[in-house]
Structures are given as C-alpha cells and as structure tokens.
Amino acid sequence: MFRLFPEELVNRWMDERTARLFQEEVSALPGVVLNEREEADLKLLASGAYTPLRGFMDQDDYLSVLARCRLADGRVWTLPITLAVAPEKIRELPRYGPVALHSKIGELLGCLFLTKIYKRNLREEARLVYGTADQRHPGVAGLFKEEEYLAGGKVLVLRRPENYWSLPWEPAETRKAFKEFGWKKVVGFQTRNPIHRAHEYLQKTAMEMVDGLFLHPLVGVTKEDDLPPEIRLSCYRVLLENYYPRDRVLLGVFPAAMRYAGPREAVFHALVRKNYGCTHMIIGRDHAGAGEYYRPDEAQDFCEQFGDELGITILRFDNAFYCRRCGQTATARTCPHPQNLRLSLSGTRIRELLEKGEMLPAEFTRPEVAEILRDYYLHILTDAQIGQDAQKRQDAQIGQDTKIGQDAQKRQDAQTHQKSSVGDQNVTGQDRA
Questions:
Q1: Catalytic site residue 193?
Q2: Which of 96, 190, 411, 425 suits 322 as a labelling partner, its CA being 20 to 30 A distant?
C-alpha cells in the first residue's frame, strides 16, 4: 500500500503570461464575489491540496459526492467543494465561459471557466453531509446562510504572496521538505486546538512507527469561540522547541475553513494530507465533530470503510488521559484504573480555569503552553474590563449631561413662570386702574 507521493498534484496557478493577459481583459468579464470559505477553497484548489479537483464542482460531481462520497468518476471524495451565486447575479453570467473571481474586499483572485449553474437543496445537503439539518450545528448554520445556486467549472488562480506566519502551506512545499529530510513514512496530525498532553501522547506514539511528524493545524475559518490561529501557533512552536526532536517534526498550516462534518470531514482531511505527502494520518475520537452530533468512534469507522482506496494509512487512537495511579498519559487500552483516577478536562472547564487566571494542570498540558493560554485569556478579560469601564464612564457622562440639561430646563421654566407671574400682576393692576 505504501507509495510516496502517489498522485501528481493538480496545479491551477496562472503562469506570468496568462496572469498578465487575464488582468488586461478582466474588466470586460462578469464577476462573482467569494466568501471566506470559498476563497480559502480556491487557493487550496490552485495549490493542489484538493487534488484531483481542478475547480468548483459541477452538478455531476456534487450529486455523486452527496449520494455516495465519490466523484462522478468513482474516486473517493466526501465533501462538496462549491461556489454559490445569488439568483440576481445569474442573469449577469454567461451560460458558458470565463467569470472573474473577487474577494469580499474587491481583490481579483482568479477566473472560473463556467460550465453550468445548478440549484441545490440546502436541507438535503445538510442531511447528507452533516447528518442533520439542525441549525444549532455550526456547519449547518453556515450552510443555510449560503445561496441555493452553484456555479461549477475549472479555475485558474492568480498567485499572490501569502504569509501564513512563514510556514509552509502548499503541498509542493511539504513534499519537497519530506524528500529533503529523507522521510519515507510521514504521519499527519490535524488540529484546530492547542496541543495538550493527550495529543502529545498520540503524536509521539505514532512517531515510533514513522520517520517524521507533520503537524498541520487548520488556520482557516472556525467557530467564534475557537482560539485565534496565531495563539495556537505560539503554543505549537513552544511545544516543538522544548519537547520534540527538531529533525523529526515539520510544522505547516492548512488554510481551509472548518466544516465540523465529522466522519465525512475525517476522510476529507486524510485525502488532503495524502496530497501534502503524508503516508499515515492520525484519526482520534470524534474527529472534526461538533457537540453530540456524531458517535465518538464514527469518524474512525467511516475512514476504515474505504480501506486502501484512501491511499493513506489511518492510525486509529482512543482518547488519551493522565492516570494518577499510572503516573503517565494512557488510554483505556493500556490503563486498568477507574475513571476517578483519570484526568481529562472539558473545553468548558479549561476556559473556566483560564478565565480565572489559573494555570492548567501540568498533567494536562505543558507549562509553557499553559502560560501562553493564561496570558491570552487574561488579555481578553483585561480588554473586556477596559471596555466595560469605558462604557460606564460614558453612561455616567451621559447621565451627568442629562442632569445638567434637566437642571437648566428647570431654571428656564422657573424664570418663564416668574416672568409670567409679573405680567399677570401688571395686567391686574391696570385692570384696577
């Protein structure tokens, strides 16, 4: 099964001549504005991260992916990669032909060679991709904000300087690095959270079986309560500097949006890491999950259904925890002790500790990581307190100004009343005269 770089990467970047001609003629083309998720997908399409895709899905691929987790030609692919268009925009677009693609801030991104505009059923897509149409699911909520019409076709993309914290983000970069390192077997690890001791345990266990670890955090659009990517990257860097062999780990970034599609997204993540050059992929419990929408082992089971078709070996791990009796990190497969001896913190409990300015337990995360997280949350709380204090001062000033205005009005009313009384007295005196 092992094949290093099993498939040639798709490359949809414009060469210099094509880019120059395109920019000269773009003013005559109709245009479509992409949202953040679509813009991220466009760059990843161009880079080959989504190989074998060459553009946004046409109707045949879209329907096939929804129905059977495969492209129309039978190759495994589990998530729709689509470009939405508003109904009023359709009238401006050609039936076939080039369409300019722009970012939300008006930046020219590239060109779509439109082949067809088709309508989708948002509820059906939600049910098939996410397993639910419940809009409390973050992926479903995002989907229901999109338009119903989709534009399919191949893309060509303008290459622009990207500075993802000076880290590799294109598959060609990582494949080249793995080759230079002499790594034949590479395990990928997908994350959108800071690495704690349980993650470290999984990674280092996997590293015993391979030549190198590719730590590949997702840095695209995530939920509002997820940590900013720059904070997570600070955690990864300090961890790698102090606790990992530097010649056996590569840190890169995956600038995609998080879908929270559970089992389907787990397969998608594995396929993408194969394109980046990984031969193995760690899939933990509830990979790419959200709340209670998926069984803890559902993503792992789903990956295994495809077997060798994925072209990458899935490493399946149970949840890891710190056992006070064992005195080390373990899983239920290696630790015989009861739950009350196992330290495992929920996301809610972690936030509670950090918001109080407390350090996370050393058994849960490394102290350097805990310090970065604590400082970040204290900074947030300080900013929030400053904002609240400023609002209080503003409210107090408004109240004071209102009081001054009311007092002035009272004085004016009193003066008016006094003048009126004097006038009445004068009139009364004249009447008597």
A1: yes
A2: 190
Per-residue pLDDT tens for 37-88?
999 999 999 999 999 999 999 999 999 999 999 999 999 999 999 999 999 9
Q: What is the pTM of this model?
A: 0.86
Residues 213 and 338 in one domain: yes
Confirm whether 91 is domain-assigned. Answer: yes
Question: What contacts 268, CB < 8 A, 6 or more positions away?
Answer: 77, 78, 79, 259, 261
Task: Say which of 159, 193, 237, 319 is annotated catalytic.
Answer: 193
H/E segment holding residue 61: helix 59-68
Do residue 141 and residue 219 come from a single domain?
no
Give catalytic status of residue 95 as yes or no: no
**Which CATH number does the domain housing residue 311 bear?**
3.40.50.620
Which among 297, 327, 344 is the end of a domain? 344
- Of 37, 175, 192, 197, which is the active-site residue? 192
Tell me, yes or no, whether 128 and 228 share the same domain. Answer: no
pLDDT by residue (tens digit) across 139-156? 999 999 999 999 999 999
